[in-house]
Design brief:
The complex is a heterodimer.
Chain A (H helix, E strand, L loop, with lengths): L1 E10 L11 E7 L11 E5 L8 E6 L2 H7 L8 E6 L7 H8 L2
Parallel strand pairs in A: 3-5
Antiparallel strand pairs in A: 1-2, 1-4, 2-3, 4-5
Chain B lengths: L1 E9 L13 E6 L11 E5 L8 E6 L16 E6 L2 E4 L1
Parallel strand pairs in B: 3-5
Antiparallel strand pairs in B: 1-2, 1-4, 2-3, 4-5
The chains are: A alpha+beta, B mainly beta.
Chain lengths: ~100, ~90
């Protein structure tokens, strides 16, 4: 999973039927200190997230389709949580980044 | 999924049998500000998109799901035509 910030909304009338009723949001992955990293992606929202919120996104794989609750959905990214808070213990993070 | 603009078509006569009848489109990925982002790629079309339209496509084996029970060998598929998007 990745932490991302919701930056926008997308409207699409003509789409694959598994997307009917689904909310599409543009999300920008962010680093732990909240800086943008990598390319923004389009994710289906299954938790009622809104613009500016920090969210938890599953990217690629079956998990994204499962989040929509539909079988064989052609989905590769889904918002599956709204982040209240992230705590990183600097000393622990330091240990992990050592060679 | 990713935003893109359809910039062309691909014709392929000799191909995997599971791809027959499918439309192959060249798409240019777009950043949220509408600028081109990265290299164009070829995607199969599941929604009837055409050149010049802005679409969103899915990456990975999920791209073949709209065609089940046939599973065309693809890693990108167009699954929606975008009316508009907003970035705040």
């Amino acid at each position: 999973m990745q932490i991302a910030r919701v930056i926008g909304t997308v409207v699409a009338t003509q789409k694959h039927r598994t997307f009917e009723g689904a909310k599409l949001l543009l999300v920008q992955p962010v680093t732990l200190d909240d800086r943008p990293t990598g390319a923004a992606v389009l994710a289906v929202d299954s938790v009622g997230a809104g613009v500016h919120e920090k969210v938890l996104v599953v990217i690629e794989g079956r998990a994204a389709g499962d989040a929509l609750g539909r079988k064989a959905a052609p989905v590769d990214a889904a918002i599956i949580g709204i982040v209240d808070q992230v705590d990183v213990h600097e000393d622990a993070a330091g240990v992990m980044s050592r060679p | 999924m990713h935003l893109a603009r359809v910039i062309g078509t691909v014709v392929s006569t000799r191909k995997d049998a599971a791809l027959s009848g499918l439309k192959l489109l060249v798409v240019q990925p777009l950043a949220p500000d509408g600028q081109d982002a990265g290299r164009p790629l070829v995607a199969i079309d599941a929604v009837g998109a055409g050149t010049g339209e802005r679409v969103f496509y899915v990456r990975g084996r999920e791209a073949s799901f709209p065609f089940l029970p046939v599973e065309p060998p693809t890693d990108a598929g167009i699954v929606g035509i975008v009316d508009h998007w907003t970035v705040e």
